[in-house]
Each structure stands twice: as structure tokens, then as C-alpha cells.
UniProtKB/TrEMBL annotation:
NCBIfam families: PRK05231.1, thrB_alt
EC code: 2.7.1.39
Pathway(s) where this gene product acts: Amino-acid biosynthesis; L-threonine biosynthesis; L-threonine from L-aspartate: step 4/5
Record flagged with keyword Membrane: no
Pfam families for this protein: APH
Protein name: Homoserine kinase
Species per Swiss-Prot/TrEMBL record: Aquincola agrisoli
Top enzyme category: transferase
Protein's UniProt keywords contain Repeat: no
Domain Aminoglycoside phosphotransferase span(s) in chain numbering: 27-262
Gene3D superfamilies reported for this sequence: 3.90.1200.10, Phosphorylase Kinase, domain 1
Gene (UniProt): thrB
Reaction(s) catalysed (UniProt annotation): L-homoserine + ATP = O-phospho-L-homoserine + ADP + H(+)
């Protein structure tokens, strides 16, 4: 269970007191998640999620929390952060930054079909459009600069073949990033980590409806195409092999394009961005696996999965049907 910072009932009670969410009736540590400490908080008025940020700083967090507030106000289903009487949504608990957000209804859809992929694709486009007038700016902190810093740290743990694959891919992405086509990609605030476990669905089997996107703590300003690529690499693949399930990917992109049609360069660069997205998560998983931070009980994700995904994207580039 990834509870890095233990919170007592008394500490939770004192924390929620200024937030006007009622009286505490329950507190439960959340096992999933690898970045932050999360607790479900129950009061006589409802259910909330308390997050204590273990990595992000007081300077970085306003970008994420105000983005969630901005999107929620525009009708995108994301957890809305609770403010104190002064309107502040970033709080402090045990000396660390913390927030209280609404708990989304439902659960994860870990075995998605067309129906789920279409809903995620459609909502992703609506989220990109809704974020376009968000005034704050923060780059994607897990973007190219971070990959270039982190790949050398994990190289000592890799086989010769892995060393070659990751180094060549990093060089390919650095060259791509210098190209005018890449630099002209439409950009704005993106989620950047919209995996199956960061989306909720509710409803009867076969009729589930999307109830929200959450975990915006890797969000940043980057190309919309990178966000699409991250999703395709998770929602539309066979998890055993990393192979793309093309009809599911086509359904995802078609639903996205009903709200925001892709530009020519986006269609052309999608295969390269799907490689970039695989590289990003292979690198972070290697980093978490070989250079772990303290946690009460942390289970790092399997890095080999994204090595397979990267290899599959290189071997079989995919363009959405036109
Ligand atoms: N707003 C929310 N509504 C409902 N469940 C949530 C919410 N935020 C987090 N959770 C639950 O907590 C788990 C861990 O949260 P996550 O944000 O993925 O953690 P981490 O930031 O540590 O990776 C999620 O898988 C989900 O089950
Ligand atoms: N989605 C990433 C891990 C990020 O952790 P999260 O629990 O905050 O989504 C991966 O699968 O490597």
C-alpha cells in the first residue's frame, strides 16, 4: 500500500475543519497509486479524497489544482478541490502540501472495449478544448528534458540490447523535437498519464458511462497529440504483448475527432508520439524500479511492459484511418 505519510483520525479531523465538508466519520488509506499518499475521507456530507503530495512542491501544485478547478467549472468531470474560507485550495498537512477533492463515483474499467475507448477519446478532446483558455503555464515535467536527465541514471541497470534501444529512442525523440512539424503541434494543458486506472466508469456491465478523469499530477502544457498517444498505448493495446488493437485505437481517435479533428501533422506524427509515450513510461518505471523512494509498502510497475510497447510501436507504426 502506497501510504508514505501516515495520518491519524485527529489530524484528518483538524485538516478538514476549515473546508466546510461536514464532520469526519471515516478515514481509509488507499493502496493503489505510486506517487502520493491518498486517503478516502468520509463525512456526514459525503466522500472525498485527501492527497498528501510526496514529490510535487508548493510552487508546482497550484498549476494542477487550479487546472482541475478550471476544467470542473467547464463541465469536464474531474475532482473539484475544496477551498477554505479564503478560497485557498492548496493546504498543508504534516508539513507537506495537501488537497481535499471530491471522490468520483464508480470504478476502473481495466478490461476496456470500444465503448469505453470511445468515451475516453471523446472526453479527452473536450478536456483539451476546455483547457485552452487556462491561464497558468507549467511544462510537462516528465517531458523530453526529464527523459534526457533520467535515462543516464538507469542505463547501468540495463542489458546491452536495452541500452541500445533506450539510447537510440531518446536520440530519435530529441531530433524529432527540433523539427518544425513537431514544434507546430497544437498544445495546451494535457493530463499526460490518462491510463485505465486514472479514469472512472459507473453503471451496469455493458452500459458503463464515464464518470471522471483524475490524478492530474503529471499534467503540463504539451502537445495534445502526446496525450492521445499516452492513452492509445494503454487503452488500446493487448497488455500481454504491447500490440496495438487497431480497431479500438481507430474508435478512440474517431471519437476524439468528433470534438477536435486532428491536423495533418498530428496524423503524420502520431506513430512517433506513440513511441515517445512508450519511452516516457519505460523510463519512469525503470527509475521507480531501480532507484525507489521510501514508502510503507511500494509496488513499482513492471518496466518490461513499456519496453515491449516501445518495441511494438517501432516495429508496427500505426496511422489512424483517413
Ligand atoms: N477523486 C477520486 N475519486 C475516487 N477515487 C480516487 C480519487 N482519487 C484517487 N482515487 C483512488 O485512489 C487510487 C490512487 O490514486 P492515484 O491518484 O492513482 O495515486 P498516485 O497519485 O499515488 O498514483 C486510485 O486508483 C483510485 O482508486
Ligand atoms: N501510469 C504510470 C504510473 C503513474 O502512477 P499513477 O498511479 O499516478 O497513475 C505507469 O503506469 O507507469
Amino acid at each position: 500500500m502506497a501510504v508514505f505519510t501516515e495520518v491519524s483520525l485527529d489530524e484528518a479531523r483538524a485538516f478538514i475543519a476549515p473546508l466546510d465538508v461536514g464532520t469526519l466519520t471515516g478515514l481509509r488509506g488507499i493502496g493503489a497509486g505510486i506517487e502520493n499518499t491518498n486517503y478516502f475521507v468520509t463525512t456526514d456530507r459525503g466522500e472525498y479524497v485527501l492527497t498528501i503530495f510526496e514529490r510535487l512542491t508548493f510552487e508546482q501544485l497550484p498549476f494542477y489544482l487550479h487546472l482541475m478547478q478550471h476544467l470542473a467549472r467547464r463541465g469536464i468531470p474531474v475532482p473539484d478541490p475544496h477551498a477554505d474560507a479564503a478560497g485557498e485550495i492548496l493546504h498543508t498537512l504534516k508539513g507537506k502540501p495537501a488537497a481535499l477533492v471530491d471522490k468520483l463515483e464508480g470504478g476502473h474499467q481495466l478490461a476496456p472495449d470500444h465503448h469505453h475507448c470511445e468515451q475516453v477519446g471523446g472526453m479527452l478532446a473536450r478536456m483539451h478544448l476546455a483547457g485552452q483558455d487556462y491561464p497558468r503555464h507549467q511544462p510537462n515535467l516528465r517531458g523530453l528534458a526529464w527523459w534526457a536527465e533520467t535515462v543516464p541514471l538507469v542505463l547501468p541497470y540495463l542489458t546491452a540490447a536495452q541500452h541500445t534501444l533506450i539510447s537510440e529512442e531518446l536520440a530519435f525523440q530529441q531530433e524529432l523535437a527540433d523539427s518544425p512539424a513537431f514544434q507546430g503541434l497544437p498544445a495546451g494543458p494535457i493530463h499526460a498519464d490518462l491510463f485505465r486506472d486514472n479514469v472512472m466508469f459507473a453503471g451496469l456491465p455493458g452500459h458503463e458511462r464515464l464518470t471522471g478523469f483524475f490524478d492530474f499530477y503529471f499534467a503540463g502544457v504539451d502537445s495534445f497529440l502526446f496525450d492521445i498517444a499516452v492513452c492509445l498505448n494503454d487503452w488500446c493495446i493487448d497488455l500481454d504483448t504491447g500490440a496495438l488493437i487497431e480497431d479500438r485505437a481507430a474508435a478512440f481517435v474517431a471519437a476524439y475527432e468528433r470534438s477536435r479533428p486532428l491536423e495533418g501533422n498530428e496524423v503524420r506524427l502520431l506513430p512517433a508520439l506513440m513511441r515517445a509515450a512508450a519511452l516516457r513510461f519505460w523510463t519512469s518505471r525503470l527509475w521507480d524500479f531501480h532507484l525507489p523512494r521510501d514508502a510503507a509498502l511500494l509496488q513499482p510497475h513492471d518496466p518490461a511492459h513499456f519496453e515491449r510497447v516501445l518495441q511494438a510501436r517501432i516495429d508496427n507504426p500505426w496511422h489512424p484511418p483517413r
